[in-house]
Structure formats: structure tokens, C-alpha cells
Design goal:
Blueprint: E1 3-9, E2 12-17, H1 18-21, E3 39-40, E4 78-80, E5 83-95, E6 104-109, E7 118-121, E8 125-132, E9 140-143, E10 166-173, E11 179-185, H2 191-196, E12 200-206, E13 221-230, E14 234-237, E15 247-251, E16 255-262, E17 268-272, E18 277-282, E19 285-293, E20 295-298, E21 302-309, E22 314-320, E23 327-328, E24 331-332, E25 336-342
Parallel strand pairs: 5-8, 7-12, 13-16, 15-25
Antiparallel strand pairs: 1-2, 3-10, 4-5, 5-6, 8-10, 9-11, 11-12, 13-14, 16-21, 17-20, 17-22, 18-19, 18-21, 22-25, 23-24
């Protein structure tokens, strides 16, 4: 009888055995034809009245989403009645922070930690349909976006929680400046548990007229880095631990825009080797004047927009400077990535 990775139950970790747990069904999806009104399906329930769920395999839910150089998936959309329509499904899936490592359970949007990057333009009208396949209620908060109260995504306050098997549609106009924002679960209960399990993702706003897969005007490269210090996954960037974090390609002379997002519970001073960079925005809004630095102390729940001018070739580390966050005994691991800058000649 094979054991599956640890699962989060209440406030303690337990190891569950699939055969003993009786987790044989998944919550069915449902559609939603009217904004702001959830519609339910009949989901399988256990003898205790709780919805039955199974942990989906690695990669479940991300099909059709382009994988970007920073490792994040990009969420496609369709156009309907002048709105960009996106679809998110949150469910239990297996996740690995390094290839070959033991899979752990995640509660992820569209099967990845972080969830897929939602990329829109300033002024866009959006509808985001969220289907809940978790064994408990959830909701989604659009962190940093100025939305109407009914779209704020706080379960039990601005809306009812999205129950297992339900779909809820959020509708709003993107009226904030271009920059880095995020989304994460925000139910009335168990918000800490759901975020610990990976229920978050980046939300990037571009200037009007920017193509869906086009780099921010004035830059040759654009990356998003989401920092996390979850007890479920450890110290990660975009859900991965070094050396599994992707090397970010660039060429000498490239101007690179980095959206840096701290979704964790700790401060992380991120240090760049070989060159300085400029902080040009915070929480989506531009600074009055850029600040030049080689280390930026990121606070929980805060986003930063950073501008790099790649001036010399090399494999330049970008990492948290709190040593326990970047080592596992003798080896480098955790919250580290690098810029792989090639000579332009």
C-alpha cells in the first residue's frame, strides 16, 4: 500500500494513505452565465457530509497555458461582449519544488504554484470565473487592484464563500497603473491554510495596447518572480527551489523589467550580484524617482517593479540574503535564481 505526501489537516500535518482515506471522487466543474452569482453542481459527498476530493497528478489544469522563461504559466482568455474572460480552477494537486523531490499536496489554481499569471492592459474590462474543487470553501482577493466592494473577494464579507463545486464570476475594470499585483484566496475561514498550500498567483497590468505575450514597452525582457516561505514548500521562487529555479536569459545591453512579489510571511532582502538595479514602482504605482540599489528588502504582501540594465556577461545570482533561506546545510538551495547574461557580440 503506497503512501502519498503529507496533507494539511486543521493545524497539523498528517500522512494519509490513499486506500484508507477513501478519496475516490473529484468535484465537478460548473458554468456561470451571470456575473457575481455562483451556480452549484452536485458534488460527491462522504458519509460525514464533507465533499470527497482526490489529489490530481502533477501538471493537471495547466494545459493550453504557455510556459514563460520565468517558469510561470500565462493564462489565456477569450473575448465576450467587450470583456476579457479568464478561467481559474482551484483544486488539490501534487507539486514538486525540485525534479525528483517527493511530491507534496498543493491547493493550486490551474494546477501550478503559483497559479498562472493573469496579464491584462490598463483599462481592460475583465471577467474571471473561479471554480472551487477544494474540499472546503474559498474566495479570491485581487490584491492591490482597486475594484468595487462586491468584487473584492473577501468570503463572508464582500461575497459568500465559494463552496465546493461552485463557480463564481468576478467582474471589474482594471483602473490601476501598469505594474505588479497578485491574487490569492481569502475565505472567511482557513485563509492561512489555503495560502500555505499555494493558493495564489501574479496579476500583471501592462500599458494600453500591449500585446498579450508582448514585453512591456521600452524593455527587451520581462519576468515575474513570486517569493514564498510556506511551511509546505519551503523557501521558493515561483514555486521552485534552487537549482530548479529557471535561469533568466538576457543579453548584454538588454533592459529587463522584473515584477517582484512577496506572498510569504517573512521579509526577504533580495540581492543582485554583478550590477545594481533600480526600483521604479511599488504596489503597482510608480515611484516619484527611481532608487538605485543592489539589495531590496521585500515585505510580505508587497510588490515591486525593478529595472535592470544588463551591462556584463555572466551567470549572476539574485537571491535572498538571509542565509538559512538559501542553504540546506552545505549546498545552495531555496530562494535563489540567476540571470544568464550572454555577450551580444
Amino acid at each position: 500500500m503506497g503512501k502519498c505526501p503529507k496533507r494539511y489537516t486543521g493545524w497539523k500535518w498528517v500522512v494519509v494513505v490513499l486506500a484508507a482515506a477513501g478519496l475516490t471522487g473529484t468535484v465537478a466543474g460548473c458554468s456561470d452565465s451571470t456575473a457575481n452569482a455562483p451556480q452549484t453542481t452536485t458534488a460527491p459527498v462522504s458519509a460525514t457530509g464533507q465533499t470527497k476530493t482526490a489529489i490530481a497528478p502533477l501538471g493537471t489544469g495547466s494545459q493550453g497555458e504557455p510556459k514563460q522563461a520565468d517558469g510561470l504559466r500565462l493564462l489565456p482568455y477569450t473575448m465576450k461582449d467587450g470583456y476579457k474572460v479568464f478561467h481559474l480552477t482551484i483544486q488539490p494537486v501534487y507539486w514538486q519544488t525540485q525534479p525528483g523531490s517527493k511530491p507534496v499536496e498543493a491547493w493550486a489554481f490551474n494546477g501550478t504554484v503559483p497559479g498562472p499569471e493573469i496579464k491584462v492592459n490598463q483599462g481592460d474590462k475583465v471577467r474571471i470565473q473561479v471554480t472551487n474543487k477544494l474540499p472546503e470553501a474559498t474566495s479570491v482577493h485581487w490584491h492591490g487592484l482597486d475594484v468595487p466592494f462586491a468584487q473584492d473577494g473577501v468570503g463572508g464579507l464582500s461575497q459568500p464563500d465559494i463552496q465546493p463545486g461552485q463557480t463564481w464570476t468576478y467582474t471589474f475594470t482594471v483602473n490601476v497603473p501598469p505594474g505588479a499585483y497578485m491574487y490569492h484566496s481569502h475565505p472567511m475561514n482557513d485563509m492561512m491554510k489555503e495560502e500555505t498550500m499555494g493558493a495564489f498567483g501574479p496579476f500583471i497590468v501592462e500599458p494600453k495596447g500591449t500585446g498579450w505575450q508582448q514585453v512591456h514597452p521600452g524593455y527587451q525582457r520581462e519576468y515575474t518572480l513570486m517569493l514564498n516561505d510556506s511551511s509546505q514548500f519551503g523557501y521558493t521562487i515561483n514555486g521552485l527551489s534552487y537549482p530548479a529555479t529557471p535561469a533568466l536569459p538576457a543579453k548584454v545591453g538588454d533592459k529587463v523589467l522584473v515584477h517582484l512579489i512577496n506572498i510569504g510571511d517573512m521579509n526577504h532582502p533580495m540581492h543582485m550580484h554583478g550590477m545594481h538595479f533600480q526600483e521604479i514602482g511599488q504596489d503597482g504605482y510608480p515611484l516619484p524617482a527611481p532608487i538605485t540599489m543592489d539589495t531590496i528588502d521585500t515585505a510580505p504582501g508587497t510588490t515591486y517593479d525593478l529595472s535592470f540594465q544588463m551591462n556584463q556577461p555572466g551567470k549572476w545570482l539574485f537571491h535572498c540574503h538571509i542565509l538559512p533561506h538559501v542553504t540546506s546545510g552545505t549546498d545552495m538551495s531555496g530562494m535563489i535564481t540567476l540571470f544568464d547574461v550572454s555577450d551580444n557580440s
